[in-house]
Fold this protein.
Amino acid sequence: MTEQEQGAELAPMPEDWQRALAVVAHPDDMEYGSAGAVAKWTDEGRSVAYLLASKGEAGIDGMSPEEAGPLRVQEQIASSAVVGVHDVEFLDHPDGVITDQLALRRDFAAAIRRYRPELVITVNHREYFPGGMFNMADHRHVGTAVLDAVRDAANRWVFRDLELPPWQGVRWIAIGGSTMDTHAVDISTTMDRAVASLREHRAYLAALGEHGMADPAPFLREHAEETGKRFGGVLATSFELMPV
């Protein structure tokens, strides 16, 4: 599927799995769309864990990284709990300048070996988001490293110093916010919690000012309605699903 073909009908996401690991760059990355799906999955009894490459410390212009980092960590933990995620880890890659691909791959492979997910969720790694907004470097670098780390985690001779057994059980990678989405999840019953999870990022949203959203509900609902037009008319969030 090419970017020009976006707009095609979306297929349902697979349901024959129990464990997922979401690997993203910053606090709030999951909340701009994917959290509604996570809430539905945890409601169904599936296990979802989050791994964040950074603490988001460079994300608030009027607040020093030393102050913003701990605050954004707490906001993300609260946000994750709203959608039933209680395993939330933060790495120390520098927010805004995440570039060390080998270090990212090693950290992500270690997490995949520890959590042993069947589904790995990540952020759009391409240059643009749907609608044409340019994607930032942190997202691109993290997303690409996740794709590589899934293979790394399965190879016992890669990152041997981790002393963790290989995990070859990842069956799919789901990419949120992709310009090449293929699958979707009905979030009609979890829309309110998706909004509530983003609202937990209070300091971050407030700092966005006129460029942000005092109330994220209209933005998230509009996006869900637009996606749902290709998924039976329900409220939905979409992913590009890559079989492994």
